[in-house]
What does this fold into?
Amino acid sequence: MQLVFIGSGFVGTTTAAACASFGHDVLLYDINDARVASLSSRNRRTIDACLFENGLADLLIEHADHITFTTDYSIVERTLDTAEAIFICVPTPSREDGSTEMSYYESALKKLAGALVKRNSGKQKNRIVVINKSTVPVDTARFTQEQLDKAGVKNVGVVANPEFLVEGRAIEGNIHPSRIVVGATTSKDFAIMRRMYAHFQGNKDIPYIEVNPFEAAAGKLLANYLLFSRLMLCYDVMGRVSEQFNDVTFEAVRKIVCSDPRIGFWGFYDSIYAGGSCLEKDAKSLAHQLEVTKANTDLVRASIESNHRQLELFLARVKKSIAGGVKGNSIAVLGLAFKRDTNDIRNSAGPMVVEYLRSQGAAEVRVYDPGVDAASLAAYAKESSNKRTTVVPCKSAAEAMRGTQASVITTDWPEFAKLTSVFSKTVKAPYLIADGRRMIATDYTMLTKKGYTVLAVGSPLYRPTTK
Ligand SMILES: NC(=O)c1ccc[n+]([C@@H]2O[C@H](COP(=O)([O-])OP(=O)(O)OC[C@H]3O[C@@H](n4cnc5c(N)ncnc54)[C@H](O)[C@@H]3O)[C@@H](O)[C@H]2O)c1
It folds into this structure.
C-alpha cells in the first residue's frame, strides 16, 4: 500500500520505517529541511545524530527503496492519487493553560484538505483515510471530518490510531506493539486499516482493538495519565517515605511493594522528574479537557504539581548541601536526555538542572550525555551559556567532573551505573555527588565512608562521618 506521513519526527519516522519493513511504500513529508536531509542521508551516523532510536537507521537504510523523504508538497499531492492512508504525526504541545496547541495539526490538515480535493484530477475516486497519530483532544476526529467536508473532500474517512510507542524502544514497539487501537466509523475504513496492519492480524499476542475515534483518543490520553500518575506515586510517596525514614532503602521497599503481581515493577524507579514530550503534556491536556466539562480535576492536577515538586525539592537539597553554595562554583551535570536510549532532551531534567544552576550564579556547568552527539552538545552549551555562567560540553563523565565541586546525575544511562569508580579516580572528597536517578545506590555508604557527601533522590543525605 502507498502511505503518506505528514511529520517525520519520532512518531512519523519510526512508524513509517516499520510500515516500510512490512512491505508498504511510504512517503514522509516534513517542513524541517535539515531533518529531512539527515533522515534521507542513508548514513547511519547522520541519522542517529538527528533522531536516535535503536534500529531506526538500520530500517531506513535497509528499506530505503520504499521510503521517500521530502519537503516538497507537490510530491505529496502527486502521491495522493494512489495513496490509501495519510498519517498526521505533527506536534501537539501544551499551551500555558494545559490545553493542546493544535496549530501544527490545523495547518497540516488545511493544506492536506486542499490537496485531497484535487486528487485524481478532482475526481477523488479512491477511498483514502486520514489517520491521526498525534495525541489530540478526544473530539478531534469530529473537527477533522468537519474541516475535510468544508474543503469538499470526498471519499475520505477519519481514523484515530493513537501511538503508544516508548522513546528509546520505538522500533521494537512498532514491530511488536503492546496493542493496536483503530478508531473509525465506517466498515470501509476499518477494512483499509486491517489491510494496512495485515502483518498483525491473527497475532494472539497483540490485541487489535477496534473502537470509535473518540474512544481511541480518550484511551490514549488515559493510558498516558495512568503511567504518569504511577510515576508520581513512586516519586512523591514511595520516594518520600524512603527519604524521611532513616534505614528504609528505596530498593528494599520497591522489592516488597512491587512483588505483588497486581502492582508489578513498571515505573517504580525513583527520579527527580518525569520528563519527555508526552506524559506530562497528556496529563495537562486531560485536566484541561475535564475542566472544560466542569468535571473535578484535583487528582490529575495534583499529579502534575507533584512532578515539579520532585525537581524543586531535589534542587533545594543540592543548593543546601554543596560546599560554598552554587554561586561562583563549577558543577557537572551528567545527562541531558530525559531518559536512557534517546537523544531527546525536550522537557528533560538535565537541561532544567542546568537552568537552575545558571539562575543561582554557578560560574561553570560542565555537561555530558553519552547519547547526544558532539555537535548538538556544543550547540546546546553555547545557547545555554550567559555572561555569568559558562556551560561546557564534555566528552566523558570524567571530563565533566574535573575541577567541579559537585556532580548531579540526571539521566539513567547504563554507563552511569559505573560512575562510582569514575568519581573515586577523578574527584577528591569532600565532594557532593547528587544522584537524581539512584544510579549508584549500592555505593552510597561506601562513598560516604570515603569522605564524599551523597545526596540521592529517595534517600536521606549521607554525610561523611568524622572520626
Ligand atoms: N514522542 C513520543 O514518544 C510520542 C509517543 C506517542 C505519541 N506522540 C505524539 O505524536 C505526535 C508527534 O510527536 P513526535 O515526538 O513525533 O514529535 P516531533 O517533534 O519529534 O516531530 C514532529 C514533526 O512534525 C513536523 N511538522 C510540524 N508541523 C508540520 C507540518 N505542518 N507539516 C509537516 N510536518 C510538520 C516537525 O518539523 C517535526 O519534524 C505528538 O502529538 C505526540 O504527542 C509522541
Q: What stands out?
A: Residues 6-12, 29-32, 35, 89-92, 104, 107-108, 133-135, 163, 165, 167, 277-278 surround nicotinamide-adenine-dinucleotide (CB under 6 Å).
